[in-house]
Amino acid sequence: MSLTLTDQDKLTLRTAAYGAVSLLAAAGAAGGSPHRIATDGSVALASATGPIGHVLADKTKGVNLNGKSVAELADQVLPALTEAMGLLRKQAPAEADNFRSTVILAVEAAIQRGEPSPTLADMTHKITGALDAA
Question: pTM, whole model, 2 decimals?
């Protein structure tokens, strides 16, 4: 089964993946280094392979992750994660698995330094829940 994504679909995938990393950085800002979280998570996303890797590597403009609070950012990102998984599951289940594992890898990379704070652990749970809701 081939994967055919519209520009909007690709934007949703990028918003979901990079948004998950942004959510962790925003949630971890109080107790850690948001820059380190964002860097480690983004490096993991940049190492994705297959069609998902090509979509995430595309630097087209359009991803807008400018919430004024963690709540505003979550309102944008969590539904995008669920939507991305739904559209991938319909078209190419293997790519849905690839996307999910890529986002989970980015989350793990972002919080790899020691035991995650309760805030980061909770955000990780929310991200995983959104991925699995589709």
Answer: 0.91
